[in-house]
Amino acid sequence: MTTCASGNSCTVKKLSSIQSVAACPGFNVQLTLYTNRHQLEVTCSDKPNFELLRNLPNLQSFAFKELAYQDCPLPVGNQSLVELLSVFLNLTELSSIQRLFFVDNAKFSDQISLDPQLFASLPKLQVLSMKNSSRMPLDNPQLFKHLPSLTWLDLRQGDGDSRTNKALLHPLSQLITLELMENDLTTLSAEFVSDLPSLESLTLYHNQLEHIEQFAELPSLTSLDLTYNQLMTLREDVFDRLPSLANLYLEWNMFTGLPTGLFKHNSKLTVFHADNQHSSGLVLGDKLFAGLTMLQNVSVSNCKITMLPEGLFIGATKLSKVDLSGNLLQSVPENLFRDSPNLKELNLQNNELLKMLPDTLLRGTTQLRILILGPNQTNNHINNND
């Protein structure tokens, strides 16, 4: 069926009960409903004039709880997304969405600063993804002021922090999950990730981070992912104001050393992974994990480690899994696991161990079930019940 609007004609083609295409001069808009998650996907073939879809007969009406807005331009100035799309979508449905996914919107959008009005009339929004859309300037500190209920924010694949206001996230007091991966960040200022009392998970993998300031007070943060960056060192107080930190991921960086007092204020640390460091060799500070009574899993494989300090795990009584494989160890301190009665798995394969391991190394580790030693220069059996 063909209808006319403002002197132009648009046609609606119903592809199925869950999919329609509105074809107008110069652009198409496809509507697809994913019933299993109540998501409506709006996809543009070119820069559209949504006014041509106003009161368009036969355009299906969908009930949805989340919206994916793909390859379409973002509204600018004083126009909100709800206002922009309400010419052809139900206003009540739009205002009630809980999850919003912007996908590759930069292509047809004007490269100007986004305005807070963009998110007006979305009081129930909890999840917001701006994948690749964040290549547009995010320099308005009040951009998210209309999103008091937001708990999850994805700003991946942006252009780094060159045009991002350092106070951008401050209105999001309920934010729990923040994803900043693949943004070409070279530094991370403490101010940017601050005033977020509810934040539990921060993901920064696949950036170009070379330096990190001491994190601001983040009392609820439990998980921090810094994998695939270019970090060589960390200041000793970098994690001091993260009292709830439980899971730390530092894989695929360039670390040459981790200082002794790095975790002195992180008593809840449970999982530490720092495998595959691209450096001349990683040096672990003496007593790096000492006193961490919640620590269970440590993995530092393929880091060119040549020696381990004997006090590395003093007081880490819940330690259950340690992976030291793929390093350059020629020996292991005889009392390394003297405070580890719950150790269940130890991997020492692919090192350069030249002699029998000390008989006392695993004394008291009565829970040990998996011990991987080969290949090394010597393969040896240890009786941990001595």
Automatic annotation (TrEMBL):
GO molecular-function terms, A-Z: signaling receptor activity
Q: Which Pfam families match?
A: LRR_8
Q: What Gene3D superfamilies would the database entry show?
A: Ribonuclease Inhibitor
User: What name appears for this protein in its UniProt entry?
Assistant: AGAP010637-PA
Q: SUPFAM superfamilies of this UniProt entry?
A: L domain-like
* Protein's organism: Anopheles gambiae (African malaria mosquito)
Q: Is Signal among the key words of this record?
A: yes
SMART domains, from UniProt? LRR_TYP (SM00369)
Alphabetic keyword roster: Leucine-rich repeat, Repeat, Signal
